[in-house]
Amino acid sequence: MAPERLPAARFAATIGTRTELVSVAGGGGRYQVVIGDDAREVDARLSPQGIYSLLVDGVSSVVHVREEDGLTLVEVGRERYEIRVEEETRYVIRTRGGTASPDGGQILRAPMPGKVTHVAVSLGEAVAAGAPLIVIEAMKMENEFRAKAGGTVKEIRVEPGQAVNPGDVLLVIG
User: Could you tell me if 42 and 109 lie in one domain?
Assistant: First the structure.
């Protein structure tokens, strides 16, 4: 009997400042992995010691994978990678919410319909790049939006409990 083929799972993988969309399809230890436009056939086996044996395009590697502080740590030989892996949908929601304003600040817009569950900043507050701004519940997931750059909160147009629609301006940082 042939191994079960599962539908493709789609992820966003970020190493440092570079993010690639990744699609993984297959099952039973045999997968097709597409990173950007690069497709590879992968044979992956997990040993009882928790170490993966990978065969990628005929090249064998031993890979140790573990989770730590929200990152996936991957060790291949003497190389170590810290990768942030998230579902593609969650990545799109998280990154499409903010756009630059004409004065170089940030206009945070709702990327999809949802409900504001938390506003983490106040009017006039100085925020640093990466600071949490707003949490929106959408599709049964809480999505936290962060500042793309530092600045001062100029406008807050929503409050907790408020429903929002795609494109609604949530707040403005100048």
Answer: no
Q: Are 133 and 145 in contact (CB under 8 A)?
A: yes
Residue type present at position 103 = D
Instruction: Name the residue among 149, 153, 158 with its Cα closest to residue 173.
Output: 153
pTM recorded for the entire structure: 0.56
Tens-binned pLDDT, residue by residue, of the chain (174 aa): 445 555 789 998 989 888 899 999 998 899 999 998 899 999 999 988 889 999 998 899 999 999 888 889 999 989 999 998 988 877 776 666 555 555 567 888 888 889 999 999 999 999 998 899 999 998 788 888 888 888 999 999 999 999 998 888 899 998
Chosen domain end from 88, 118, 135: 88
Based on the fold, state whether residues 20 and 77 are members of the same structural domain.
yes
- The CATH number linked to 58 is 3.30.700.30
Phi, psi of 132 (to 5 degrees): -65, 140
